[in-house]
Every structure is written in structure tokens, then in C-alpha cells.
Write a structure and sequence with these properties.
7-stranded mixed sheet, alpha+beta, 3 helices, disordered N terminus, about 375 residues
Length: about 375
């Protein structure tokens, strides 16, 4: 009987207390709802920070929640509507993702070895009613990479042709393409205009010539290291051409002399010297030497101790698969003040001098005899 009475009193107290709270809620509804919301409903402690991560690195999103109570936290990928995790349990089959609970407030989502496909919005969600969420964006940047196709490979063209060099690259953000020559030479573009660098994926060269031959670098950059480049070799074919600075060369007997021709040709030419339709080979007296620089060749022929038979026309010849050409240098006898005279020449000079002296002596004697004869004749006439 006593227990039943106590229970009735307790129920009455509960009803009265509930009635009081109801009346207070009716008199101050905003304050009461705010109090209940602050006390009973979870809330986010801070916003999720957006991330910009290079491919291959790790992305970290932190979702800070206060007063979670018995509610649950889930991570989702917004664009694919994929549930990634509930609490610390990973739902997705992506082994690169983990979720950890830090300091009883933060739910940290980690994505290792980030890929381009990971780019997008990530949502942290609380299963309240209505549901509460916040999002953060993952921007994945990718360093440039030059594509094998349609990027140009090494090219071989005939002189006078039109040439197009192409370069294609991918990356995020989209890379910028710059062309320059490996040796720093200028690039000939439209008309007579020349530039050191050219911006654009396609480089056009009109009426290419031998001066355009060489290595061109396609450089791709988007602000994400490293910058990459590809080397494209432009090879220009043309027949040989000869240049001779001195076509007439004088030499004294016994002097050492050098003849020189300059040849330009590509493919590489065969070069040699000739005299009297005979090819000159290396020996004690003749030393043919070639110096190469790209498509240019300097041909030098050294003649040691020039003799009388060495004077005449020398021909330098250059040949390749596209044609051939030759040039002539004439070596003539030029007596130098210091030139030595052989003993034979000295003997001849003496003989000539004696003969000349005898000739002068004979003339003087004959004149004296004629003069004496005239005097004798005049004396005889006078006596008679």
C-alpha cells in the first residue's frame, strides 16, 4: 500500500515537471530549441580545407565534429556518389584510403599515392535528421609529359622544302609548349622573321635551307616540376658546293705551300685532290687534310718543298649521293728574294757572263783595227 502511494506521488511529480517544461517552452520557444540543439545535436567544429596535391603525393582531409554522441560519421566522393567510409571502417575497395579518429573530434581521411581520378569534391556527413554535411575539394596537379604521338620525330628533308614540327603534351593544368634551338640559334618563322623562342605546339618553317639544320627542343611546362623536353633533329639534304678563297697561289722553288677549299654538303661528301687527272694521295711531299664541322668541310693540301714539276692546276673535288662539284687552284712560280739558286744555274750564269765579256772584247778590237786602217789610208793619200 505504501509502495503504491509513493509511485503515484512520483508520477505526479513527473507530470508536473513536464507541464512546467512545456509551459516554459511555450513561453520561450526559440531559447528552448536553441538550448536543445546546442545540447543534443552534433555540429562541425571547423570547415574542411581544400587541397591541391601533386599526383603521387598524399592528400589529407580533416572533418572536425563536436558533440557527436551516438551519431555516425561517413565520408563520400560527391561526383560518383560513392560511400568511402563509416566511422573508421573503409567501405570502398580503394586500398589507398584510410580514416582515423583523432583526439575524439577529428575524422581524418587520407588518400595515399594520389591519382588524377581522385580529383573532385569529398563530403563529410553526419547521419542526423536532417542530415548535416560539409565538403572539401581535391585538386590533383600533374607535371607535364610529352606524348610520343603526334610529337614529331627526327626529320630528313630536301633543301627548299616546307617543314612542320609538332609537339603534344599532357598534364594538369594543360602545359604550355615552347620551341628553341639546342645551340641557341634563331628560329626562322613566317617571312623573314626570326625569333630565339617560339610559343605554340606547331612550328612551321618555309623553304628550309642548310642553316635551319640542327636540333630543335620542344619544351613543356605548366608550373608543376619538372619541366620536360624532347629533342627533334632536322636534317637537310643538299648537293655539294665549293668555295675557294684564293684561286691563284704563287710559290718559290723549295717553299712549303698550302692550298685550301671549303665544301658544304649533306649527306657527308667524299672529298679529294687531283692534279693532271690523277688523285693525290698522302706521302712525303703531299699532305691532304680534312676538318669537319657539321655539313662543312675544310680541305687543305700541303706541298712540302715545291719543285718545278709541282706548278700547275690543282683540283679539289666533292661528291655525295645528290651530286658532285669541283674547283681549281693554280699554283705558279713566284721567285722570292731569298730563293736559293742551284749550282747548275750558277754555272750557266758564269758562262753567259764570259760569253758576254768575250763578245764585248771582240767588238772593241775590231773597231780599233778599222780605225788604224783608215788612218793609214789617209796618210798615203797625203804623201802622194
Amino acid at each position: 500500500m505504501i509502495f503504491a502511494f509513493i509511485l503515484i506521488i512520483s508520477n505526479c511529480c513527473v507530470v508536473i515537471n513536464s507541464s512546467i517544461q512545456s509551459n516554459e517552452a511555450a513561453e520561450h520557444p526559440n531559447e528552448t530549441n536553441s538550448y536543445i540543439q546546442d545540447r543534443d545535436i552534433p555540429k562541425f567544429g571547423e570547415p574542411i580545407q581544400n587541397q591541391t596535391i601533386a599526383v603521387g603525393r598524399e592528400a589529407v582531409f580533416s572533418c572536425v565534429v563536436d558533440n557527436l554522441q551516438t551519431y555516425k560519421i561517413a565520408w563520400l566522393k560527391v561526383d560518383t556518389q560513392t560511400i568511402l567510409s563509416i566511422q573508421t571502417h573503409i567501405i570502398t575497395k580503394n586500398h589507398r584510403m584510410t580514416v582515423s579518429h583523432v583526439e575524439n573530434r577529428a575524422w581524418v581521411l587520407r588518400i595515399r599515392d594520389v591519382k588524377e581520378s581522385d580529383k573532385g569534391w569529398y563530403m563529410c556527413q553526419i547521419n542526423t535528421d536532417p542530415m548535416k554535411n560539409q565538403v572539401g575539394y581535391l585538386n590533383v596537379v600533374v607535371p607535364p609529359d610529352i606524348l610520343d604521338y603526334p610529337t614529331s620525330t627526327d626529320m630528313v628533308v630536301r633543301e627548299g622544302s616546307n617543314v612542320t614540327l609538332k609537339c603534344a603534351a599532357r598534364g594538369s593544368p594543360q602545359p604550355n609548349i615552347t620551341w628553341r634551338r639546342e645551340g641557341g640559334e634563331s628560329i626562322a618563322i613566317s617571312g623573314q622573321r626570326e625569333v630565339v623562342t617560339f610559343n605554340g605546339s606547331i612550328l612551321n618553317i618555309s623553304r628550309v635551307n642548310r642553316l635551319h639544320m640542327g636540333a630543335y627542343l620542344c619544351i613543356a611546362s605548366n608550373g608543376i616540376p619538372p619541366t620536360v623536353s624532347k629533342r627533334v633533329m632536322l636534317i637537310v639534304h643538299f648537293p655539294p658546293m665549293l668555295m675557294i678563297q684564293n684561286q691563284l697561289v704563287g710559290s718559290a722553288i723549295g717553299q712549303k705551300i698550302m692550298l685550301e677549299c671549303q665544301s658544304e654538303a649533306y649527306p657527308k661528301s667524299i672529298n679529294y685532290w687531283m692534279k693532271n687527272e690523277t688523285i693525290i694521295t698522302k706521302g712525303k711531299r703531299f699532305e691532304p687534310v680534312e676538318t669537319e664541322n657539321a655539313y662543312k668541310v675544310i680541305m687543305k693540301l700541303t706541298i712540302n718543298s715545291v719543285g718545278q714539276n709541282d706548278f700547275g692546276a690543282y683540283k679539289c673535288v666533292s661528291k655525295n649521293s645528290l651530286g658532285d662539284t669541283d674547283g681549281t687552284i693554280k699554283l705558279y712560280h713566284h721567285r722570292h728574294q731569298s730563293e736559293s739558286i742551284s749550282s747548275t744555274e750558277v754555272q750557266k750564269m758564269k758562262e753567259n757572263e764570259i760569253a758576254s765579256s768575250t763578245s764585248r772584247l771582240s767588238s772593241q778590237t775590231l773597231a780599233a783595227l778599222i780605225y788604224s786602217l783608215l788612218c793609214y789610208c789617209c796618210l798615203q793619200i797625203y804623201l802622194h
